[in-house]
Amino acid sequence: MKMSPVTPKDLRGSVIAVPPLARRSDGTCASEENLALLNHMKEGGITSFMYGGNANFYNLGVTEFGQVVDDLSTHLNADEWLIPGVGADFGKAREQLAMLTERAFPTAMVLPLRFPSSAKGVATGLRKLADSFGKPLIAYLKDDGYISENDLTALVKDGAVCAIKYAIVREDPRQDAVLSSLVQSIGTDIIISGIGERPVVDHFRDFGLRSFTSGSGCVAPALASAIRIALMDGNLELAEELREKFIPLENARDNYSPIRVLHSAVEAAGIATTGPLGEFLSVLDDPAQIHETACAAIDLVEFNRYALMGAAPMNKVCRQLA
Question: How far is Cα 123 from Cα 29, in angstroms, rounded to an integer?
């Protein structure tokens, strides 16, 4: 498993999957099912795995966090990267980071605490966490005003932050003054497009970003990887065609719950039995939502099967998928 310092090459080397965490009926980590999901993602070319909101790491206790991280780590090879989310509160984050220090992790993502927090307090907290960890962290920017641009830029320049997961949703991703200003301040090397497939083409084309996270890519990793390759090659038309295959599942996630829908989708697609969602969350229980999610997931995993064929160029695959 990757233990070396984080570089822009690491961020660009793979789609950064943001998977759910499979659990047994008693809520504990289901090792075999998580391995099945990881193997599915690896088969599609993904080597970077960020466990955060979709895995409900917000509600892991400190002891359970260590157990889950240890279990997931056993499933990864030397060239694969596990990025755990810590927090969201400061005290838990600091204790979890101490555990990661013992395990020589190169970084972790600090989950955003929306309440109680202030922009200046978030900046101070991130700096203290990086100092105690002794390594830079990944900041998760999900809301306007969460942290000031000046403070975030200072954290980057001082080596306290090695990457930024940018996930502020805009009605039109092409119109984003905050992202534009961040790019002007710190460049594009360490800013990750953090909202999945829907805005990724705009983020690459209009802002110059070069890495992205994907939740639905856990269902169709080969298709998500094909989007990454098309974007890196400058083939925006192909990237847009491939992205459209994700929209039905992304619509369900946006309409109902990004976390709960993805958790259900992985199981509906036959990839792994995901089980319960962990504390303070519940699995989908509305029959219409379950049906819509299952249909979208089954279609998407079938598209992934075509993408895995590899024998035909992706533009031909797109025609097959039409």
Answer: 33
